[in-house]
Specification:
- This protein has a single domain, classed as Pnp Oxidase, Chain A (Roll).
- It is built from 4 helices and 13 strands.
- A 7-stranded antiparallel sheet has the order 3-2-6-9-10-5-4.
- Strand 4 and strand 5 form a beta hairpin.
Length: 167
């Protein structure tokens, strides 16, 4: 038997979202609204609330890097998600290492095993987020990357692919 569920709480029962550290210029934002929208050409979309400092940056720069963190970076992920880059250098505050991207003018996060350089090709306002669709221009990946080490977000907590809640 199924029961009716509150529409505004659907995000709590929806399968897990990937968590990424997105760099826009020299700022880092933690995002879980990340989705592949096309494989040919390869396009990734990210959702950012218009009140967010990173929203202003992506509007100006029209480019971003998706940095996929591992479970070892959970503290940095939480810090970047809970603090604004408006008055804070998140790279200095977290100790994350910058590396210049090869195609766009933004930092890569060296500690992340995957970095995906994207240029914004379209923007759409949908609900409480604006979606920025970026064509993938360059992908960097470490040889020992295991996608099971990536982070997921569900119902206000982080998990790994074994669905263990991370503190």
């Amino acid at each position: 038997m199924k029961r009716e569920y509150p529409i505004d709480q659907t995000g709590e029962i929806f399968p897990h979202f990937p968590v990424v550290l997105t760099t826009i210029g020299d700022n880092i934002i933690t995002l879980e609204f990340v989705q592949f929208f096309s494989f040919e050409p390869p396009i990734i979309g990210i959702g950012i609330n218009p009140d967010n400092y990173s929203h202003q940056l992506i509007e100006d720069k029209k480019e971003f890097v998706i940095n996929i963190p591992t479970i070892e970076l959970i503290d940095e992920v939480k810090f970047c998600g809970n603090n604004s880059g408006r008055n804070l250098d998140k790279f200095s505050a977290t100790g994350l290492t910058t590396k210049q991207s090869e195609v766009i003018n933004s930092w890569l996060i060296e500690e992340c095993p995957i970095n995906i350089e994207c240029r914004v090709i379209q923007e759409e306002s949908i609900g409480n987020c604006d979606w920025f669709f970026g064509e993938i221009l360059k992908v960097h990946v470490t040889e020992d990357y295991n996608r099971l080490d990536a982070l997921l977000y569900s119902g206000n907590f982080y998990q790994d692919f074994k669905l263990r809640e991370l503190k």
